[in-house]
Amino acid sequence: MHTGKKVYIGLRPAPVNTGIVFHRSDLEGGAWIKADPLHVVDTCLSTNLGKDDARVATIEHLMSALAGLGIDNAFIDLDGPEVPIMDGSAAPFVFLIQCAGIEEQNAPKRFIRITKTLRAEDADRWVQLEPYEGFKVSFTIDFDHPVLKNGGQEVTVDFARTSYLKEVARARTFGFMREVETLRRMGLALGGNLDNAIVVDDYRVLNEEGLRYTNEFVRHKVLDSIGDLYLLGHPLVGHFSGYKSGHALNNTLLRALLQRQDAWEFVDYSAKRAPFSFVEATAAASRAGGALGGTTQVRRRGRAACAGGKGRTSASMRPAASAGKAAFQALRTFFSWRRSQGTQTGLWQSTRNTPPDQENSQVRSCASRGSRPFQAGWRSRRRRPSR
After folding, report:
1. Which one, of 29, 380, 39, lies nearest residue 232 by Cα?
2. What is the C-alpha radius of gyration for the chain, rounded to an integer number of angstroms?
3. Per-residue pLDDT reduced to its tens digit, 310-347
């Protein structure tokens, strides 16, 4: 998005308690940067990690997808300085991870439960974390623009009642045409275009396909916030609120939280059901219109198949025999079962960091049934093929 450079990305399984770790494979000797609020070195229009001379930019959409799917441990390989923007949302990353597969790991999933209200402010902007038995995100933006005003500038998403995939994952980043030249003079948005962002002029949306949600702009701020919050390395149990905030204020709040050890505690739900689930409502979301608008993989170990749902059953469960009600029921059962056990999750297999013609055959098998995935080897500025 910002650097305009082509990059390949690969996601690999990682052992328990690894967290999310980025690997710059293009640097001599490699460079490893763990996702952590204290490793954030720049927040100008995106969240950027750094360690020594290594940098990884624009991580928030991928981090949001990992949070939304409950991935605790993964290695992220990059051969460039920035995570590819894909279509400007988290949906392509969600698809990529689903095609790789999600696996339970033999360790309790640890949550950070907010016990005291914590707030960070900057002029009239603010962010806040407060106790709540679940995970809820509220966000308000305030743009004096007819499109944004008409679509709504406030949203609250309670993930005990709805699905990340349905309500958040597809919301794209956005920008204003009048700011493009200024941003590019600053060395930003060099790879931005109508394929990877919503662009508005003074009166209308310039993207031919329009908006995915009537309030897509504020939903994308929720997506960004979830990605920033997941730098903590654990799902939150609490209520996050933001008013006109961005990556800088989000990171300020996280750093303050880490310093206030009386405001939070680690909890696990290995003995009882967790109070929320990002993806548990996926089946219902799929019936209501779908999270990714494509096909779904229902996987057994050793082979992949595509079916008309959105999610997957686990190796130890019976896969749905056909698209439809049985598949949805299996997916609902899987996600409910996995969350109720409170165990960590990681990738079942790698999404290989190779050119598209050498891409993982199981990822390709999903594409061969009529979907349009973003394969792991696709470049950040490459358009989706027409079919």
Report:
1. 39
2. 20
3. 222 222 222 222 333 433 343 333 333 344 447 787 77
Give dist(CA 1, CA 174) in Å, integer. Answer: 12
Which amino acids are annotated catalytic? Answer: 247
CA angle at residue 55 from 51 to 56, to 5 degrees?
120
Residue 262 burial (C-beta neighbours within 10 Å; 0-12, 13-18, 19+): exposed
C-beta of residue 226 within 8 angstroms of C-beta of residue 60? no
Is residue 157 within a helix (H) or strand (E), and if so which, with residue range? strand 154-158
pTM: 0.75
- Name the residue with tokens 């990353």: 93
Residue-wise pLDDT tens digits, 127-159: 999 999 999 999 999 988 888 777 789 999 999
Task: Tally DSSP H helices, then E strands, for the chain.
Answer: 10, 20
Task: Please give the structure tokens belonging to residue 317.
Answer: 């469960």
Strands 110-114 and 236-243: parallel
Q: What are phi and psi of 230, to 5 degrees?
A: -75, -5
Report pLDDT digits (tens) over 257-301.
Answer: 999 999 999 998 876 667 776 655 443 333 333 333 222 222 322
d(CA 134, CA 275): 5
139 Cα distance to chain centroid:
17
**DSSP symbol at 60:** H
